[in-house]
Amino acid sequence: MILLEITNRKTKSEKRKINALKSKGYTLLEVLVAITILTFTLGTVFQALSLSKRISLKSDETVDAQRILQHLLVDTTLMTKGIQRKSTTDDVPDQDGWSYSLTAEPLELDIETDDTEPEEINTKDKQPQESESELSSNGKATIPGMYDLKLCVIHKSFLKEKSFCISRWYKVL
Prior knowledge:
Blueprint lengths: L1 H7 L3 H11 L5 H46 L2 H10 L1 E5 L6 E13 L23 E2 L4 E17 L4 E11 L2
């Protein structure tokens, strides 16, 4: 009887081996749950990478446009040509897919008028000052030698055309 009890006793390592042989793999449900979790995780990661790539491309395009605009603004020949013609359009030199449009109009500023009566001022000693600006009938003053420039650069890619515009005052020297 003691011999029988000794043979029926199994060591812990033998029990582990038997349990390992009984469970040979995962159930179909466990595999499907794991695949579903993996799919959602990868979908989220790819969506985030796609969004960051689109933001990066837009940022690069905006930086290029800003660089080109700054380069064109310091080109006095281009500014003079645009003011003389009132409008000019051309391709940007050495920049494939980029063109520009420049319009120049005399600078007009809105003038607010004060309807109140002016105070009495001793005008005997003061000479009337001549204004450099020309006041028109619509309440706007045209400033001689100053122009309102609108400069746009247009990026033409495969399917779309995007423009970046700035407006600046420019003084003819």
